[in-house]
Amino acid sequence: MVGRTENGSEADEQSAESESCVYYIKWVDVEGVDYAVVMQNENGPCPLLAVINVLLLRGQITLPCGSTQVSQKKLLQFVADCILRLKPKDIDDAELPNYEQNVSDVLTLIPSLPKGLDVNIHFTGVKKFEYTPACALFDILNIPLVHGWIIDQGDQELLKIMDGLSYNRIVEKIVTTNNESENCLLRNFLDSSASQLTTQGIAELLSNLNEGEIAVLFRNNHFQTLAKQKDALYVLVTDMGFLGESAVVWETLDCVDGNSTFVDAVFSVSNKPEIVANENTEQVHFMLVGLYSLTLFFNLQTSSQLFFEKMKVWLIWQQSPHCRHEIGLYSEEYDVQDEVPRGRALSLSTQAVRPHKNYNRTSKGLKVHVLQFPSYSLDLITEHKRTMLVKDPGTSSTRLSISYDAFLVKSEWHRNVVPVSGSVLAVNTHETFRNLDRKQILYSVAEKVKQCIESLEWLERPSLLNTFYLTVYPDLKKYTFRYWNCIPALLYPQAVRMLSNPTQISAELATSIQMFKALHHNEAFLLVGTTPAPLSSIVSNNFAWSSDIHIVYPDPSTLTAFPGWPLRNLLAAVAYVRKDLRNAKFICYRSGGVPSIIIHLSWETASDLSTAAVGWERIKGSLTPAFINLRGSLDPLKLMEFSAELNLRLIRWRLVPNINLQRLMNLKCLILGAGTLGCNVARSLLAWGVKNFTFVDDARISYSNVVRQSLFSFDDAANGGKFKALTAAEGLRKINPLISAEGICMKIPMPGHSVPQQEEKEVEKTVRHLENLVKQHDVTFLLLDSREARWLPTLMTTFHHKLAISVALGFDCFVVIRHGVSDDEVDEGSEQSQNDPNIVPGSQLGCYFCSDVTAPGNSSLDRTMDQQCTVSRAGISSAASGAAVELLAAVVQHPKMGGSPARLGENDESTTVLGATPHQIRSFLSRFTQASF
């Protein structure tokens, strides 16, 4: 099973790659000591990253304090040095040749560490792997290599089958052997533990690792740094999206379903950033997606109100070229010139919204959701921080990018980020987008800049001078997006020109500025000779302007001959507050390998500051919006997830604003019987967003099943037929690969069906297994062929207070019944039911067998073939399945869910947001009538 291993023929290519590939460094404070954590690049959580971070946390290697990047070549050299340095002192002469051979083998593996290693696990121990040179690497470095894909020790049958077999051998066994019962067990285990982590595995990791020990966890073809602290397991967070989050260092590893909690460097729960939103907002998500893309969506899920006001978001200049959760907006170069009578006019490199081609489309921030009805405007918080990558690797153009966490309130920004305040307007129709009053928009944003200058607020926070107004029309069914960005620049002062050609600053000055910028919180500041001073000094009565004064500001331009667009408003502000000045020197401070420049400007000052401005982005010189189509660029799985959820969210936004979709999506459904009813029920549940299914059936697919059972095809019935349960689960996963669907081959014990003595233990095991399944699921559908097959599951669901829904078919009729859910903690009858005799509490509802006067027996004994087959009208199974699923949907909307009451006589449609919650539904197709009670 594994990560791939690069071969020797690719050594030259790997060497060249290691020279240019870099990793970003996150510094974390552990009780006053700074530790470096190397973050992911495009290779993800690779073996190199896991090994390096273990060595760093152990203190076996160190990085220069304060460094922000490290090359891949340097990291590989660290590993090689450690391998050569860690030779055991007490090794015997007889063992030395073998050790040296292992070292030689391991050294040949080092170039492949950024890509992957061949690792093949055994399922009977967290430290059991098939021995390979990759294992020798971890042995020599004395780093425990562990996994958490372990068989439950109570499953003796599976342990016996898998004893001594590695993952690769098990896959080979499934493919090459014809032992269906064993293969069924093996497939079930692999499918049910597809996350490659089991509860047994977590328990064994805790018992095998020592307190404070650091290891490498192998899971899902990835290698992660794992630590045991305070009797808990933690995985090191190396995702680039958390580079600037000092409070997010580790992530808990305590369950198999992916739920986790972020903690800081000392393993205290991290305070997640607050989401700023209207009080009626449930959740806000921001997204820019696509390869060659900029897209902007918001998951603004409201209850009854349809309008949002004053939501916060940040638009960021980001200097990290490998930020996983960002889309870059790069600029095309064009000049904005004032009319000048003489000299050289000032031209500026602008920031335009463009797709950034290096966006990683596998970003886990790929969530697309939409505001319900109205167009909406989002205001952006004004925070500012410095250094920024101003260079797009492919085009050398400046980038203006929106980060994945744009809605989050952050007390501080990463030192490589300059936040820029602004607004986003998203509209719902193309016509609205075309008819926007763009002159008024430009005037309004220019007015804000003007007020900021006149109020002198910019002297304390110069970043307020930089703003934008992004207008977007997303067509979320076609995945096309039209957008047009406005970055306002005041046409003040007049006749701006350069008095001399720009010159590059010296290395000494660059070093000084690098230190000074931190003192001024990455804002613009003054440099008087070699002494820094705040911008507010400009208006001080004791401040005399001289030729050695420079105004230093963070500049996004990559051009040596032109400053960036932000200089425009900074110049306007300086000219406004110092009307005595006619010229000044600016230092356009840059980073990311782009030379900083000094530019000397002169101007003519008008008496009044006006809102005259330019700023709407040009596309190839013309004022027109941009258009992108993302359908071919997005991850198909994410498209599937979004599209499926969109239909459900439209129900809430347009028709049922109070529906609780999360209750439906979180349901765990046990479907007993994977035949006609089972397939149809599963398909309908899938449409409601349910993501967790377990099918139980022991039958095989026959050719007569295929036309009626919607999850099967002709090929499934060939060669004796596949197992229905396994094939139904596989069919659901083909429809929606993002769900969890498991098939279990099980014959349910039935009253009236005798059991041979030699099979009694097997039946007892089956009963325990079935009981565990009932306990693990929220609702059980009884869709089995015979009446007696439903008896034991009914008994179990009643005993464990679980909701059960039974569906039975006749030739032209059906019945759907929900079983009563009793709960010792719930009173026998609510106040409402006590006041209204027609209301029956959910705890008093009967089950499928409540009106029986005799125990169920063997109903299939001595039946002829025509009596054994389910004979019914073709459409009745779909109608019955739909009624059962819709009954469940209504029941889970009730506060008591399975305990929701039923009503005698006419049903009350206002019981839940989806209507009534009857006890039974009976339909008769011969009369096309339906009754519920």
TrEMBL record:
It comes from the Eukaryota. InterPro entries: Atg7_N, Atg7_N_1, Atg7_N_2, MINDY, MINDY_domain, ThiF_NAD_FAD-bd, Ubiquitin-activating_enz. GO terms for cellular component: cell periphery; cytosol. Gene3D superfamilies: NAD(P)-binding Rossmann-like Domain, Ubiquitin-like modifier-activating enzyme ATG7 C-terminal domain, Ubiquitin-like modifier-activating enzyme ATG7 N-terminal domain. GO terms for molecular function: cysteine-type carboxypeptidase activity; cysteine-type deubiquitinase activity; K48-linked deubiquitinase activity; ubiquitin-like modifier activating enzyme activity. One of its GO terms (biological process) is protein K48-linked deubiquitination. Residues 649-895 form the THIF-type NAD/FAD binding fold domain. Residues 22-267 form the MINDY deubiquitinase domain. It holds the Pfam family MINDY_DUB. Residues 392-632 form the Ubiquitin-like modifier-activating enzyme Atg7 N-terminal domain. Belongs to the MINDY deubiquitinase family. FAM63 subfamily. This is Ubiquitin-like modifier-activating enzyme ATG7. It comes from Setaria digitata.
